[in-house]
Design brief:
Shape: flat
Radius of gyration: 17 Å
Largest sheet: none
Structural class: mainly alpha
Number of strands: 0
Strand content: under 5%
Number of helices: 4
């Protein structure tokens, strides 16, 4: 996910310039920290089915963003190979940490 975030950050800087560098970055960081703090509250518990829906939504949004911004031209075979390799490695990592039984 780190390379995706770096590419996304670069695209936001190119598209929004100083507005993003001034306040946009800090809003994203603040929202990340706020979500983390809410998630650590003992009274805040998310049902597994709701969590699965949220994670599926985030994963779908990430894939759409990658396809739209990070692979704009399919004639560049090196980008497609890198994307396919990263997707395979990420899938293997997810499967290796998946609970069994």
């Amino acid at each position: 996910m780190a390379p995706h975030f770096l590419a996304n950050d670069h695209a936001l800087v190119e598209h929004h310039g100083d507005r993003y560098q001034g306040i946009g970055r800090w809003l994203l960081v603040a929202s990340l920290l706020a979500g983390w703090m809410i998630g650590t509250l003992p009274a805040f518990e998310v049902r597994p089915d709701v969590l699965a829906l949220v994670l599926a939504y985030i994963a779908g949004g990430t894939i759409m963003n990658i396809l739209r911004h990070e692979l704009p031209d399919t004639d560049r075979s090196s980008d497609v190979v890198a994307f396919a390799a990263a997707a395979a490695i990420y899938a293997a990592l997810l499967l290796s940490v998946a609970p069994t039984g």
